[in-house]
Amino acid sequence: MGFFRPSSRDDAFFQLLADSARQAVAAAEVLTELLASDAAGRERILPRLKDIEHEADEATHAIIHKVNSSFVTPFDHGDIVELAASLDDCTDALEQVGQMVVLYRMDGLMPDVTRQLEVITRMAALTAETMPRLATMKELPEYWVEINRLENEGDVIHRTLLRDLFGGAVTDPIEVIKHKDIIERLEQAADAFETVAHRVETIAIKES
Amino acid sequence: MGFFRPSSRDDAFFQLLADSARQAVAAAEVLTELLASDAAGRERILPRLKDIEHEADEATHAIIHKVNSSFVTPFDHGDIVELAASLDDCTDALEQVGQMVVLYRMDGLMPDVTRQLEVITRMAALTAETMPRLATMKELPEYWVEINRLENEGDVIHRTLLRDLFGGAVTDPIEVIKHKDIIERLEQAADAFETVAHRVETIAIKES
Amino acid sequence: MGFFRPSSRDDAFFQLLADSARQAVAAAEVLTELLASDAAGRERILPRLKDIEHEADEATHAIIHKVNSSFVTPFDHGDIVELAASLDDCTDALEQVGQMVVLYRMDGLMPDVTRQLEVITRMAALTAETMPRLATMKELPEYWVEINRLENEGDVIHRTLLRDLFGGAVTDPIEVIKHKDIIERLEQAADAFETVAHRVETIAIKES
After folding, report:
1. Interface contact flag, C180 B178, Cβ < 8 Å
2. Which residues form the signal peptide (chains A, B, C) (predicted)?
3. Is the minimum CB–CB distance between B173 and chain C shorter than 8 Å?
4. pTM for this prediction
5. CA–CA separation, C96 vs C189, rounded Å?
6. pLDDT digits (tens, 9 = 90+) for A113-139
7. Is the dihedral of CA C8, C10, C14, C17 positive or negative?
8. Do B187 and B158 touch, CB atoms closer than 8 A?
9. A44 Cβ neighbours under 8 A, 6+ residues apart
10. Across the interface, do C159 and B65 touch by the CB < 8 Å criterion?
11. What ipTM, to 2 d.p.?
12. Is some CB atom of chain C closer than 8 A to the CB atom of A43?
């Protein structure tokens, strides 16, 4: 590292990655609003979540198209594609949770699900703040250490939820099926943010 | 592009990819037959589905072996391997649905599952028609646009099925577990065909 | 192949891969012990399983770091990273089974689950024996043929378990949900060992 990173081409990549991360933040925020609403409100909010997922898809597509049609990229082609794909996985998982909550007509959602989503929202915000720093490669270890800490925090909530769910907090088997699905998809969202951090770390190691 | 693609080596790759896509078509057709049969018929048909899955495995293996032992390939080595792997995922998902239907002794399968499979069968047929066109790179955008449209069509059926399933169409919790598994594995099959289309698009962009 | 493979750098890679495979063996052994214990014993044993999973994570991390910071690697960079990642997936899946058994407060686990784990333990042991042979590339086909055979053996047990589970062996729907999850995660562990074997085969083909 240490050399000057100038070109506007590079900037366009970091911009697109930051856009994609901001879609994940928006998805987490709209999902939070959806969870806090009643059935009618949820039906109304869901299309906004789908729009965000669709925009994230297009952003990912734009990144991959740009990588495949560029001769020079700021990092290894494959690393950028994988980073973009893992950012998209974050938004996808969050949108799927919103869909499940509506399709399953969830009523009486376990309160800790909101705590699980709060941790994920912080992971999303931190990821979006970090993407522009790929241009300078500064303060990246602070990011991945904090993501790792948040992932552990979310994992404790996830395990507590499962322990309670199967410990009698929910007794109707069909409600158990629904809760389990939502809790696990949120955990997959958290894992997706951790994967993003792993890929940033991989890029940072190669650049150092 | 625009340059002449001659060699018989190339042709062998397109042939193997087309073979693999035809296994996915065969899997969709045999699975359709299986779903329409009674319990005894299903037990009799399942081995045919397993044979197809096994042949698709061998075809994939042959492609990966050929890529890894070839110095020259028509496209990037990694892109061919990923395309072959995603074609194999299509057949795998369809075979798993057949297994579930038999192992779970499904009785009274929700009728829309058949509609979900019909859309997938059309995705498979279109994919098989398209593979040979990789030799000339002609009319590929028509293919991925139509796959995308079919995936959306299948997704609407998938969501309707889940909404009905959890809306009281099936009341026995164990039957809900079984249905959910089958419906979601079929959705994964549809996603696998979409992934194939994404990979074809990636190859097309690089070649253009 | 046939050329002399000397350097100590190479040896370090094979050593790290063998370490990672030994973590998978340890995970299978501790999980076997956990399954054979009562509830209190399981709570006591689970942290050991988590420690193993954590060490495997660090081993994988060390391999990826070493690959990304090395100019010369014994095989293709990407192939080593994927091999390390798939070894880690084996240990992860086993640790998740242990977690589920404890979180779900499993009581009256179907006896064949132990048979399913026995096959996986043999896959792990064979994988750990094989990793050092990557240095000489000798007797590798015997390894992947045997892994394939074991995977088929495990698959028969897996299918029998599902057939029994949905055939009335377990009647409480919540117990069905729990069993299904554990049985399928074990099947994913078996698949992960098969993926390791596929990646060894890919490396062997490229080297031949």
Report:
1. no
2. none
3. yes
4. 0.90
5. 10
6. 999 999 999 999 999 999 999 988 989
7. positive
8. yes
9. A37
10. no
11. 0.86
12. no
